[in-house]
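Folding Problem: From Residues to Backbone Shape
Fields: amino acid sequence; protein C-alpha cells
RECORD BEGINS BELOW THIS LINE
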Amino acid sequence: MSTGTVAKPSAAPQKAGRRKLTWPWILLIVAAGLVLFSLVRVVSGADDLTSVGQISGALQLAVPIAMAGLGGLWAERAGVVNIGLEGMMVLGTWFGAWAGYQWGPWTGVLVGILGGALGGLLHAIITVTFNVNHIVSGVAINILAVGFTQYLSNFTFDKAEGGSSKQSPRIDPITDITIPGLSDWLMDLQQKHWFLISDIAGILGGLVTNLSLLTIAAALLIPATWWVLWRTAFGLRLRSCGENPVAAESLGVNVYKYKYIAVIVSGGLAGLGGAFLAIVSTGIYQEGQTGGRGYIGLAAMIFGNWMPGGMALGASLFGFTDSLKLRGGAENVHALLLLVALLLVIAALWQLYRKKYVVAAVSAAFSAAFFLWYFLTDEVPSQFVDAAPYITTLLVLALSAQRLRMPKADGLPYRKGEGK
C-alpha cells in the first residue's frame, strides 16, 4: 500500500495594508514640507509666513483648538460623541473670566476647567445614564451654555467696574517666558530671510518667545494623554468601552464609570481651552469669543484619526491659518495659493505613479486653476482671508476622510448589563 503526501493548502496571500509611518519617514515628510514652504516664501516675497510673530501667534491660537480636540478624543475613545465641546468651551471662558478677574488668573484657569467639566457631567448624565442621542445632547448643551452665560453676565459683569453685559473686566495676565539670548539670535536670523535657515529660525523663535506658562502646561497634556490612554491599564479599559463595551463589561469593566470619567475630563479640557481664550489670548471674556473653535477642535481630532499626535498636528494647521489674517492676511493667504498649487502638482504626480489617471487629471486641473489665481492677482479678497480657517477645516476633512478609523462603538447606544 503506497502512501501519498497530501500538500497543505497554501495560505491565501493577504493584501498589504496601509504602511505605518515610521519616524524616519515622518521626519523626511516634515523636512520636505519645510523646503516647500520656504520656497513659496522666497518666490512670493511673503516673508511674514514663518516669522517669529506669526509662529508665536499661531501657537497661541492653536492651544484652544488643541484642548477642544483633546477633549473630544477622551470622550470618543470611550464611545461618547461630544458635539457639546463648543458649549463647554463657552462655559470655560465665562467661569474662567469670572474667577480670574476676582482671584487671579490661575484661579480662573481652575474654575474654567470646573465649568467645562460641569458641562461634561451634564452630557454624561444625558447620554450615558439616559441613553439620549449624543448629537442631540451636544447641540442642546451648546445652546444652553450660550444662554446661561448671557444670563449670568447680566448681573455679574454688568455691575463690575470695567465690565458690561457682553464682556468682563480685564484679567491679570499669566507670566510669559522668553529665553534671553536665544530668542534674539533666532529673530535676527529669521529677519535675514535666507532660504530654509530663516524659516527654521522663525519657527524655533516662535516657540521660545513670549510663551505663556499655561501654553506649556496645555502642550504637556497632549503626551500625557497618549501615555494615560495607551500605556496604562486605566487607558486600556477606557478605550475598550469605545471599541466593544459589551465585551469590556463581560471582563469586569464598569463601562458607565469609565464613560463618565472620559466625558467629564473631556469637558474639563474644553473648559481649559475656553479659559485660555479669556485669560491668555484676550485678557477678557467676550460674548461669542469661542468662534466655533470647539467644532474646529473636533475637526482636528478627526484629522488626527483619534490620536493625540495627529490631533496636535491638525490643531497647529488650523491655528496657523487662523493667525494669517492677523498679520498681513491678504498677502500671506495669497502666497498660500502658490503652496496649494504646488501640493496639487505633487498629488497629481503621485496619482500618475499609482495609475489613477482620472484623479491625477482632476488634481492637475485644480493645480492649474490655483496657479492662474496666484499669477493673475496680487491679493485675495478680505472675506476669503477671514474664511481661511473654516475653508481649511472643510478641505482637510474631505481629503482625509478615506483613511479614518473611528472607535467601533463611538456614538452607539449601550445599556448596563448587556455584557452579563
